[in-house]
Amino acid sequence: MSKKKSKCGSCGNEIESSAKICPGCGVKIKKPFYKKWWFWLIVVFVLLVAIGSGGEETEDVSTQSDISLTEIDITESIEDNSETEIVVEETEAEKDSTEKTTAKEVITQKIKETEKKTTVAKTESKETLGQKNAVKKAESYLDFSAFSREGLIDQLEYEGFSNDEAVYAVDNIGVDWNEQALKKAKSYLDFSAFSYEGLVDQLEFEGFTSSQAKYGADNCGADWNEQAAKKAESYLEFSSFSRSSLIDQLEFEGFTHEQAVYGVEAVGY
């Protein structure tokens, strides 16, 4: 078996691998550095350092991931807070808008009231002396008695006011003519007996419209049977009647047959 050979690093002659001195040039032969024990110690040390560095890099990566996640959480928190601030700002804006609307409504109402007062003031300033006095006279009549619109105009004209002055006064005193009809109906019933039909006729005679007269009769609270009895009694106070003729007279006054019979029986027939 041939021995392994190598070249001398100094002269280039082939020598045995186990030779310690070159037989050609006499130079001492050195072992390659990778065959020395301290080389492999260094290699092992470097590997250990590399493994340790790899672990730290892993931890760094993990730490960096944690930091990134934290940054994301903070960003999301900021965004959430921003959204909350936006909602709050919108709520405040809505509140301001509502307050502005309410203030606007109040101002509009005040303007309308002022315009109304101004209109009334202008109207009053344009009133003639005759119109002013007609208004006062109409109000004084209504303080102690009930009138229809037509009846009050007639009364003012009777007092000497012109038709224009009387109409102006009646149209500018704010009267509820239905209530006037009701007051007049009650005043009639205070001193005389009436049937429903007879009371409506009397109110229309006073100048109330048909609907106003019916309103007064419908709401006066009269018991029409009792009204028939009172009317029968008043007839018998100044004249004599048979039972049948008294029933006929009550029916002529507008009472129904049943009401007339009730009235006649109430007085003793």
Radius of gyration: 62 Å
**Largest sheet report:** 2 strands, antiparallel
Mean pLDDT: 79
Low-confidence spans: 56-72, 81-88
The N- to C-terminal Cα distance equals 174 Å
Number of helices: 10
Helix proportion range: over 70%
Task: Find the count of extended strands (DSSP E, 2+ residues).
Answer: 2
Q: Based on helices, strands and strand pairing, what is the structural class?
A: mainly alpha
Percent of residues in β-strands: under 5%
From N to C, what is the helix and strand string? EEHHHHHHHHHH
Overall 3D form: rod-shaped
Order of strands, widest sheet = 1-2
Can you describe this structure?
By secondary structure, the protein is mainly α. Among the domains are: 26-81; 127-175, Arc Repressor Mutant, subunit A (Orthogonal Bundle), CATH 1.10.10. 72% of the residues lie in helices and 2% in strands. Helix 2 crosses helix 4 and helix 9 (243-252) crosses helix 10. The longest helix has 90 residues, at 37-126. The chain is rod-shaped and about 185 Å long.
Fill in the keyword field for this structure:
mainly alpha; Arc Repressor Mutant, subunit A; two-stranded antiparallel ribbon; 10 helices; 2 strands
List the helices and strands and how they pair.
Elements: E1 5-7, E2 14-16, H1 37-126, H2 129-144, H3 149-158, H4 163-171, H5 177-191, H6 196-205, H7 210-218, H8 224-238, H9 243-252, H10 257-266
Antiparallel strand pairs: 1-2
Helix pairs in contact: 2-4, 3-4, 5-7, 6-7, 8-10, 9-10
Put the structure in a nutshell.
The chain is mainly alpha-helical and 269 residues long. 72% of the residues lie in helices and 2% in strands. The longest helix has 90 residues, at 37-126.
